[in-house]
Design brief:
Elements lengths: L8 E6 L2 E6 L5 H8 L19 E4 L2 E4 L12 E3 L6 H14 L8 H9 L9 H7 L11 H12 L9 H12 L7 H4 L6 H4 L5 E5 L5 E4 L2 H8 L24 E4 L12 E4 L23 H12 L3 E4 L2 H7 L6 E5 L5 E6 L8 H10 L3 E6 L15 H16 L8 E4 L5 E6 L5 E6 L6 H20 L30 E5 L10 H15 L14
Parallel strand pairs: 1-5, 6-10, 12-13, 16-17
Antiparallel strand pairs: 1-2, 3-4, 3-5, 6-7, 8-11, 9-10, 11-12, 14-15, 15-16
The chain binds FE2/S2 (inorganic) cluster.
């Protein structure tokens, strides 16, 4: 006889519907996504509660669902983006689309839930919106367009009215390097992310920390079987694992491990004998998912189990397994000769293309790969090698001409022909002019340029993850990567120039131009991040 088992039940209202679920020790996010199929709240870091992607309303107040136990919301009214007034939702998603405030769209539903809960009078107040955004992370947009979208909603002024979304999607795809949608549905979280499209009832597999996967019926059970321990942020100092070579240099630079920090953790799913869902649904992840293990694991496990298997990485898995931007150490002479060293920890992909890209910009330097302990690095992350070398070349020009400090103008031209001109004012504001061939859609081009500005400033000033003597990553929380908050992102002016050539991506050019301008404005200190790191 099966022993009687008492199972508590929890009743709550979700998007206006009374539902009852087992009162297990699970989070509200797990109930919403995995039991109720509500996919607008996203899981970017659960249960760290730090990215804001799973923000919902509980009795009208914003809550981060991944750190809210379902038992604590018994009898309460939970609202996701699906459940808010359709007109309000349409206003917000249109504003985000019209102003380029959503690129991959993974962070957007949570941000809309936060902003839509604000008093409308505060939506036009940049300081109030910036404060509200402190609860969120966005890696794509650089925040400015989100602040603009909030202001547009506060004044009921829409952005572009006659816009060709197919052209906008073409520009977005050129910038992200993969298929990318543009439109209100993206802002509503409908980018088609693999973990949203997995069939209900699929087995769930998560990395077990020993090179394999723990497989179970639910994400909760799989993570419990894997012994998932929530990652922490360390107080360890950032290391610069490659030494600057000895020499009398005009310019030196040492950098550290930098996390690509894409918001959507790697995910895939596969039916037995089928093709796995790609982890790059609506964004390029800055090249960080090109060698993702998730699709191959989903295919193998589906065949092994004879059932559809959904593979889901936690934020900690992404940090441990995903590739980092490689640390470098460089010493350059005034004549452009010198040495550039690049870290290549065990498990890293080949850096031959990275090395070639450096040589294409700095033909007079020797490039050396250095084996150091650390997480795997990739030679395929955005602008790999070309950006580093272009920044060094621009900085050397500034040093030669004695033009360091604010106001120095950096000009860049990518091998594809994109042009960027950047300078920082004494007050820290960024001035950027960019041309990338046929514009196709100025809103999208500007949005990607702003995103690259934000990433450049973060890379130079604040980003990096701590690694111990053995190469183990110590900083496992999404807040410890040093991504600049909305409040720490300065004013940015972008001018998009007409350019008759074919459309080419501007992101790498902007990344290089603004990184060089920010470094030069700071007086070319020999280490990045210049402000010590940490977000
Ligand atoms: Fe914010 Fe991609 S749009 S993380």
């Amino acid at each position: 006889m099966v022993p009687a088992r008492h199972v508590d039940r929890v009743s709550l209202h979700v998007d206006g519907e009374l539902i009852e679920v087992p009162g297990d020790d699970v989070s509200l996010l797990e109930v919403l996504r995995d039991r109720l199929g509500k996919k607008t709240p996203k899981d970017g870091c659960s249960p760290q509660g730090q990215c804001g992607c799973c923000t919902v309303w509980v009795d009208g107040s914003t809550r981060v669902a991944c750190v809210t136990s379902v038992r604590r919301v018994a009898g309460r009214h939970v609202t996701t983006l699906d459940g808010i007034d359709p007109e309000v939702r349409a206003t917000w998603t249109a504003a985000f689309s019209d102003l380029g405030a959503s690129q991959c769209g993974f962070c957007t539903p949570g941000i809309i839930m936060r902003l839509a809960a604000l008093d409308s009078a505060r939506l036009g107040d940049e300081t109030a919106v910036g404060r509200a955004l402190l609860a969120h992370l966005c890696r794509c947009t650089g925040w400015k367009t989100i602040v603009e979208a909030a202001a547009a909603v506060s004044t009921s002024v829409s952005g572009s009215t006659r816009r060709d979304l197919a052209s906008a999607a073409r520009r977005a795809s050129i910038e992200s390097g993969g298929p990318q949608l543009v439109g209100p549905q993206v802002a509503a979280g409908g980018g088609g992310f693999a973990d949203d499209t997995a069939p209900a009832g699929a087995l769930v597999a998560v990395p077990d920390g020993r090179g394999g996967y723990a497989v179970a019926e639910t994400l909760h059970e799989a993570r419990a079987a894997a012994g998932k321990v929530q990652g922490r942020r360390s107080t360890a100092a950032l290391r610069h694992p490659v030494e600057v070579p000895a020499g009398a240099w005009a310019l030196t630079l040492a950098t550290t491990f930098v996390e690509p920090a894409y918001l959507e953790p790697d995910a895939s799913w596969c039916e037995p004998g089928g093709e796995p869902a790609g982890p790059l649904a609506n964004g390029g992840a800055f090249g960080g998912k090109l060698a993702s293990q998730a699709p191959a694991a989903a295919r193998r496990l589906a065949d092994e189990h004879g059932r559809c298997v959904r593979v889901v990485f936690s934020r900690e898995d992404v940090v441990r397994l995903g590739p980092k931007r490689p640390p470098i150490a460089a010493g350059l002479r005034v004549d452009g000769t010198g040495i550039v060293r690049v870290a290549r920890p065990p498990g890293s992909s080949p850096l031959a293309a990275w090395v070639e890209a450096v040589r294409s910009v700095l033909p007079g330097v020797d490039v050396e790969e250095v084996a150091v302990p650390g997480p795997p690095v990739s030679g395929a992350l955005r602008g790999a090698g070309w950006v580093e070398a272009s920044v060094l070349a621009a900085a050397l020009d500034a040093r030669r001409s004695g033009a360091t400090g604010p106001g120095h103008v950096v000009e860049m031209r990518s091998p594809a022909g994109a042009r960027g001109r950047a300078a920082l004012s004494a007050d820290g504001s960024v001035h950027l002019t960019v041309a990338g061939g046929q514009v196709l859609d100025e809103v999208v081009l500007r949005s990607y340029a702003l995103g690259a500005v934000h990433q450049a400033l973060g890379w130079v000033r604040a980003e990096g993850i701590a690694v111990d003597d053995h190469g183990e990553v110590l900083d496992l929380t999404i807040r410890s990567f040093g991504v600049l908050s909305a409040r720490d992102t300065p004013s940015v002016q972008v001018v998009v120039e007409d350019d008759p050539g074919p459309a080419v991506p501007v992101g790498d050019t902007v990344l290089a131009a603004v990184a060089a301008a920010a470094w030069t404005a700071a007086g070319l200190p020999g280490r990045w991040p210049t402000q010590g790191g940490g977000g």
